[in-house]
Write a structure and sequence with these properties.
Number of helices: 15
Number of domains: 1
Radius of gyration: 44 Å
Shape: elongated
Order of helices and strands: HHHHEEHEHHEHEHEEHEEHHEEHHH
Structural class: alpha/beta
Strand content: 15-25%
CATH architecture: Alpha-Beta Complex
């Protein structure tokens, strides 16, 4: 074919470098071919060097990437290990904070409020000389207002200041309610003063059960030497109460109060009727007045761990607590300064039971007592005692 014939006879025109190579064969010595060089590449050495440099740079880049990856992996693993190590501690800290002011439905509103501060350090059980629970009803707003205007601290700073000065931590003790209107009114007061200790009991629960709920809640939240019950109708000198509780005692199982006894009322038509009178006989055993009494750590610890239905409940709180004391090896410490009817240089708590036997206004009486110099401004200890 003409095309084939033309390609066969003019090969030199298609590949002109062949003749050039032939002409120079005698002028230039031949170089042996590299095993990696192409016979068609005129600059095989420079191309090989470039390829080697590229491979070297690529290998160095791979090594650098590998080193960075390993460093990142080790760093991430160390960080994960640190987080795993810190998680139990963080969980324990969070749990301790929760225990500090809550136990079931019981809650310390003061420490709940303080926990919102970044500078607050939660304690699992707050260490104090005594926690003083002033028992009150939701509707007793006027009584609480009178106490805050006299001897009970009126704000969180005052509560903490009194706690630091005397070792006594004060709270109003109150039950829960399902009444939305009452709850709303109470919440306003809680948000204003932050001085309540909620207990795991309804407001209408009988007094003995509420008292046990208080001891359980207070024991869980406070590491105290004493747990004190106070009534919201008394005038109290916290400094003198602290002095009494701080005394050295050889007997650790202690029950301190204004001790009394009296006839058991078995007539349902009379005041102070006791439905379980047949178990008590004609006269009550010795027990402390319900206005103010203190139980030591060991006593409350025993009550706090008891099952609710394992303790006998009588109709009245002071009698019921007194009956619990009979089942323990408890030292009854009688102190009538805890139930004085008038202020004296040594009175710890004042309440005129005779004056209020029929009816009276406890809030007004507390204010009147506070305006008496002997009640509010007399020294903690009488001069003759301070001189000793």
């Amino acid at each position: 074919m003409p095309l084939h014939h033309h390609r066969h006879h003019h090969a030199d025109d298609v590949l002109p470098y062949h003749s050039a190579v032939a002409d120079d064969d005698e002028a230039k010595p031949r170089r042996p071919y590299s095993s990696f060089a192409s016979p068609r590449a005129p600059s095989s050495s420079s191309s090989s060097a470039s390829a080697n440099r590229f491979l070297l740079l690529f290998a160095l880049a791979c090594l650098l990437i590998t080193a960075v990856s390993l460093a990142f992996a080790f760093s991430a693993r160390a960080a994960a290990a640190a987080r795993l190590h810190q998680q139990p501690h963080a969980a324990a800290t969070a749990a301790a904070a929760a225990v500090a002011f809550r136990c079931g439905r019981a809650e310390d509103s003061l420490r709940s409020f303080l926990a919102a501060s970044p500078n607050y350090s939660a304690e699992e059980r707050k260490k104090v000389l005594a926690v003083v629970g002033v028992h009150t009803e939701i509707g007793s707003t006027a009584r609480r207002a009178a106490l805050r205007a006299t001897w009970f601290p009126s704000n969180p700073e005052g509560i903490l200041s009194l706690e630091h000065g005397t070792g006594l931590s004060f709270r109003f003790v109150i039950g829960r309610t399902k009444d939305k209107e009452k709850l709303a009114d109470l919440q306003k007061e809680v948000d204003m003063y932050h001085d309540f200790l909620y207990i795991d009991a309804e407001e209408d629960t009988k007094a003995p059960q509420k008292m046990l709920a208080f001891f359980k809640a207070a024991y869980d939240m406070f590491d105290a030497e004493f747990y004190v019950k106070a009534d919201d109708a008394i005038y109290l000198r916290p400094d003198r109460l602290a002095s009494l509780l701080a005394k050295d005692r050889s007997h650790h199982w202690t029950y301190i109060g204004c001790m009394k006894k009296g006839p058991v009322v078995n007539d349902p038509n009379m005041k102070w009727y006791e439905s379980s009178w047949e178990l008590l006989g004609n006269e009550y055993f010795t027990h402390a007045s319900g206005l103010l009494y203190a139980l030591s750590l060991e006593v409350v610890g025993s009550l706090a761990t008891a099952k609710n239905d394992s303790l006998r409940m009588f109709d009245y709180e002071d009698v019921t607590v007194g009956s619990w004391m009979l089942s323990m090896n408890v030292k009854h410490e009688d102190n009538h300064a805890m139930c004085d009817s008038v202020c004296t240089p040594t009175s710890i708590a004042v309440w005129n039971s005779k004056k209020c036997s029929n009816s009276c206004n406890p809030a007004e009486i507390v204010k009147e007592l506070h305006n008496t110099t002997l009640c509010s401004k007399s020294p903690t200890l009488p001069p003759e005692v301070e001189d000793e």
